[in-house]
Amino acid sequence: MPTQIKTNFLFFTFTLLMCLNSLFLMKTAAQDNIEPVVAPTDSNYTFESIEVPGVDFLAVTASSDFEDYAGYTKSADGEKMVAFTLIDGVFTTYAFPNAENTYFYALGNDGCAAGHYQDNEGVYHGVILEKGVLTQHDFPGAVETEIYGISDETGALTGNFTDAQGVRRGFTGDTVIEAPGASETFADFVAAGRLVGSYVDVKGLYHGYIHTNGQFTSIDLEDAENLEYYFFHAINTAGIFVARSKRIGDVPRTYIGSARGSSELQVPGSVSTEGWNINEDGSVVGTYVSSDGRRHGFIARPATQVVSDHFGNVFNVTLTKGLNMLSLPLAPPKPMTAKSLAGITGATVVIALDAANQRFMGWTPGAPNDGFTIEGGQGYIVNVPQTRNFAFVGAPWTDQTEAAAAPAITKKMSHAVWAFVVSGNLDSIQSANGYTVKVQNLRTNTVMTARVHSNYFAAATADLSYRSVVEAGDKIEITVTDTNGNIVSEKFNFTVNATHLENAVMTVKLDGIGSPKRSQLLQNYPNPFNPETWIPYHLAEAGVVSLSIYDASGKLVRTFSLGHKPVGFYQSRGNAVYWDGRNTLGEAVASGVYFYQLTTPTFQQIRRLVILK
Length: 613
Known about the structure:
The structure is a single chain. By secondary structure, the chain is mainly beta. It is built from four helices and 50 strands. A five-stranded antiparallel beta sheet has the order 1-18-17-16-15, with no helix packed on it. Strands 30-29-32-27-34 form a five-stranded antiparallel beta sheet, covered by helices on one side. The N terminus is likely disordered.
């Protein structure tokens, strides 16, 4: 491992050395005519993390061939498990009504998901997600039903059911599956006519099986008597399967292979790895646990040994609670973004320096996009709510500029909040792309700005000397301008609290963009003036508008007929009323006090201004 390495991760890879045939023995439980399937000759993989920023418990248990995912996670209050789908990058959770827990274990290429829920008596019932709606689906006559598979070929559901006598059997579609001599049979998935599952014999030992044309091929671990469980979960049309087991006193482990042999699959740097599904391209999907106890999703892709060796380095990282600065120790096989960095680190914010514009950029889990690219040789600020221990996996940096910055995981023990983000969404407006949000701390007069993308913004600031940039009780003032620089919002005011400081982010909603709460005439600027000034106003109702100027005696000096104006903020120099200090005849008026009046069909207001020569 080079002494200087640099990181990049959402996607992380490694070399997986397999030991074929030594872990498994195969025996035939009944004479069958299954043609032997050649064991995989390429036992090398690259690994990518499947993350949802802000979600520390993501049990990925199913995938489609289009890299959509399903599984289960913790509810917002942490009291129960809820199912989820992650389709086209959109994370959605589902809870069956009145269920204690809801789980998905299958996902079809058509987006339908299936699994089971646990009622308040602890009984499991099958559940299907179709077109966003959950419906119960129990095997006929079953007391309990658990669904683990959906066939993309036939739509048939596969899983287990328990009858009134307490006997557990497998099923696929309406067919009951029971292994010879089994006390319990589990069925998981069907592909190309092959069904995979597991059974427990009369001695209580677990066996895996492949079932074809009514015949069972049993595949056993050497030390079956030491297994707490052993489940075959999925198989693809090439006959490559994924299985999961746990020995007594050990962590869960994952195996991939064929009827001729299998090898262990482990995410590097993980405490445990549980593979749940294998796709047609041979990629394996599942869940791993990092050393800080967080649960992550992963996808392992078959690769050549050269590729897996190249991306086979592991760098263990510890981030302390609060703000940390890091540069990435290893290069990933695919580009990394702020979103993926937040996912693997568990960060509440990611901040980068935009060197070209000499300003900081922020990203939060509430963003509708993946954020800025994470590059080699750069430093990034992340805030984590708890101490994090995890591993980056990838290749040593080859570019000297990138390598020079790594490894640099810097723990900042200062209690000061030396970096901060104000982020949020612009509501009540269809599109605000390109608008600018100005954020000002009224105590420090520090100003942050951010461009709006998909109605989201994140304005960031930091002090690289690690001095405080914000304190509890600070008043934050926010205004919004459009692409022409015109102000399009009221002034929004917020107060920083302890939660904002802990997360290094204040999340806000800005409503009424482009629509004032009330019509009003504002003070001209500059005032006093010579020779020109701008007179701003807000319109809460559209209508014909005029502005008249009077001298101190009440004599009309000049009138501006502005015509029909839509609702809006007429506040910037580009759209406020401009007066050059001249009367209707074009003559410069004398110094003194003048009055200006805004008139609409439903509103009228007068203010005073001063010309000082």
